[in-house]
Each structure stands twice: as C-alpha cells, then as structure tokens.
Predict the 3D structure of the following.
Amino acid sequence: MTTADDVRTIALALPGTAEKLAWGQPTFRVAGKIFAALGDDDTAMGVKCPVEDRVELIAAEPEKFFTREGHDDTYAWLRVRLAALDDVDELTAILADSWRQAAPRKLQDAHPELGRAVADGEGAA
C-alpha cells in the first residue's frame, strides 16, 4: 500500500520540486506550479491530468481515480486513492506524469529519463 510519505519522498525526488503548504495541505510544485497535493486525511492525492483523459481513467478504475464534484469539474486535476494503487512504481509513474505537465520545457529537456509531456494536439505515445 502506498502512503502519503511515499508521495512526499517521490515528489521531492523529482527535479526542481519543492513542498509548500496551501489550503492547509502539502503541495508539491515545480517552477512554482502545483503538480501534486496531498488530501487533508493523507489517503488521497491530487495530480494534474487533462480533463479528457481523466474521464477514461475514472471509468476504467473508479476504485483508484475520482474527482471531487463541484471542485474539480473545470480543472485539469484528478484525485488518486493511495491505498488502491498497485505499488510504489505506479505512484512514481503517476507523479512523474503530473510533473511533466507542470515542469518547464527546459527542465524536462534536462531530464530525458522522465520523458516529455505530450503537447496539445499531439497524440499520446
């Protein structure tokens, strides 16, 4: 089972990442942009996710992925239940994907091992 401590460890290991409290909750930022946030009870986290992708993720695995109705409706944000994740590798992949969506291109280019965010209009690889 993955935990809030795992989220913190993995997120802070990503290049250029800092932790900052916002709304009383830990958030993880790259270049000042939030890419992950722990929920107030440490059982879930929020990550960046294109609105069109999150519908598919929630439909495929509703035990893992969800949105908070009324709050996430118009944001490119997805909630993840930490206990439902398969392992730390899955958590790492989710956090890295969210980081790529927030990190500046120059920082992404400096860390090709983390891949690149798919630009608008490009197909996912």
